[in-house]
Amino acid sequence: MEHIKTIETRNLCESAKNGGCGECQTSCQSACKTSCGIANQQCENTQSK
Amino acid sequence: MIHQYKLGGYNVVLDVCSGAVHVVDEVAYDIIGLFEEHTQEEILAAMKEKYGNREDITEADLKECYAQVVALKEAGKLFAPDTFEPMAGQLREKTAGVVKALCLHVAHTCNLNCSYCFASQGKYHGERAVMSFEVGKRALDFLVENSGSRRNLEVDFFGGEPLMNFQVVKDLVAYARSIEKEKHKNFRFTLTTNGLQIDDDVIDFANRECSNVVLSLDGRKEIHDRFRVDYAGNGSWDRIVPKFQKLVEAREGKNYYMRGTFTHANPDFLKDIQQMLDLGFTELSMEPVVCAPGDPSELTEEDLPIVMEQYEKLAELMLERDKAGEPFTFYHYMIDLTGGPCIYKRISGCGSGTEYMAVTPWGDLYPCHQFVGDEKFLLGNIWDGVTNTAIQSEFAACNVYAHPECRDCWARLYCSGGCAANAYHSTGSVTGVYEYGCKLFRKRMECAIMVAIHRALGE
């Protein structure tokens, strides 16, 4: 019996290995300007994919 | 740390530090909830007591489910520990002195007189002013000079109303384009406008040069015109909506946000989202108002349950529209579970005062647009660079672990510690937290993840 379905996600612990290039968009530079959300941002690191 | 919740017919378990998302049945939901505080025997006994009279759940099922939870823990996808704290600040250290984004305040003036404006009708509590080409050019040079090896540079034309200084905006873009190749940079321009001065020239410029355009519309006419009035007191809805529609159509419906603000006057903001959809707009953002405590437009505790319900209904509407083949985007529900930001980005804070700064019309630097006008936060200027290193250090250290309240919050890797300006304005410290905003943020993330699950499962 399947009790748990795991959705495919980026493994955050693994992302430490090649992360931190800093090329992604600045958090507040898009549509909000009054809050901070980073979950909706795209990774732009070509080395990590 | 895990976070469990039920929404949209799903039992969701989020493993905070690995980022894993699990959809589970009720047995697994209960076992996971007890897992860290109880022994296997205690948990299985509790499950037997709860589900013992259910024919579809056998003792073997319970044991199998428990084993699945153990396997996920061993695989690092449940109860993963937070080992990231030593990395907090590393990205800022590695990139110390690097600036990659500027908010250019090209006009500290506005052709609207919105009482709820955080920028005090565009003046930021100062005198009206517009940025000269010379100041703007120097700001762009400052950005290039301080961008290190960063290739993508972001510049937002902001105000007040930036189109009140449109010629300078055009000239600055032309200048940036003239130097970007030789400097090995890629400028990304965005424009945030109230729409009053949009014409064919603006549309042509925006669609040619701006990677994103943020258009201010609060939704229903009566809601929009309640605050967004000109100096004669006339509402602006009738004048701007046709202009926005023309601009968006010319943009082929992409790379823009219709951005609304909701206040105490419309905590039922889903009606405003619906109005935007009815007008043909599909890229939407609706933000809670940011204003001084006690302001009549401030969201209240009584508004909170209404707003929470609206967020849930918004998620339901998104799924309904998906099914009907009429999808739309809500900025805060965009979440890329497989390609989102790395852990460095998630713990480093928003970047204000370090990689991101605001430039006033006369060339002063502030940590971000929301601090402009507060002299305590003056960082320096575009000629001499950052001279107030004490303030900059405060912002550089403002990562997610600098906020004591965030340590126990499951959403900390989705907000990176939240907005420094909101924290400051509500607590007096950039390392505080704006708890009301946090409540809304957590609800948005629950909804966003639920929508992502629905889409991932193809349901």
Low-confidence stretches of chain B: none
The residue ranges of chain A in which pLDDT falls below 50 over 5 or more consecutive positions are: none
Rg over CA atoms of chain A: 15 Å
Radius of gyration of chain B: 24 Å
Shape of chain A: flat
Helix content of chain A: under 10%
Which H/E pattern describes the elements of chain A? E
The quaternary structure here is heterodimer
- The coarse overall form of chain B would be globular
Strand percentage of chain B, roughly? 15-25%
Distance between the termini of chain B: 28 Å
Question: Mind explaining what this structure looks like?
Answer:
The complex is a heterodimer of chains A (about 50) and B (about 450). With about 50 residues, chain A is largely without helices or strands. Chain A is built from no helices and one strand. Chain A has one strand spanning about 5. Chain A is flat and about 45 Å long. The mean pLDDT of chain A is about 80. Chain B is of the alpha/beta class and about 450 residues long. Chain B contains 16 helices and 15 strands. In chain B, strands 4, 5, 6, 7, 8, 9, 10, 11, 12, 13, 14 and 15 form a twelve-stranded mixed β-sheet that branches. In chain B, helix 10 links the parallel strand 9 (about 255-260) and strand 10. The longest helix of chain B is centred in the C-terminal third of the chain and has 22 residues, at about 435-455. Chains A and B meet through strand 1 of A and strand 3, helix 3, helix 4, strand 6 and strand 10 of B. Strand 1 of chain A pairs antiparallel with strand 3 (about 20-25) of chain B.
